[in-house]
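This part of the workshop introduces the protein records we will be handling. A record pairs a protein's sequence with a compact description of its fold. Comparing a sequence with its tokens is the quickest way to learn the format. The record below serves as our worked example for the rest of this section:
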Amino acid sequence: MTDDDFVPPLANQLTLSAGTGWGLAGLLIGCTLLISACALLVFNVLLFIQGMRGVPRDLARLGGVIGVGGVVLLGACAVGFGLRGWSAANRVGESPALGVAGTVSGSVGLVAWIIAGTDLIFILFS
């Protein structure tokens, strides 16, 4: 072994507690859902105004139902991640702020996606 083979130890490693990690995951997914729900509402307005020009209706309906259902499940997971982070933080005795934020943002993102997805489904099936 030579001096070139020496790897210094990592002195400043960042580790997240379980409550922080789960809460942060819920927060990030919830915020992403909220932003994408706003983008979907804009798409819904354009689709409602311009119609289904050249888009196969059956394929669009199937894709809409599968896509909206999948994203709603993702929103439910975001709420679950936030709740898990909240409870893990309370068990350890640390601040549950990220768990609470993950739960709230996951809930708001889920509700926004349910609204936008329902609107999309109504447009596709009308």
In short: DSSP finds three helices and no strands in the chain. The first helix runs from residue 18 to 50. Residues 37 and 113 are 5 Å apart (CA to CA). The chain has a mean pLDDT of 89.
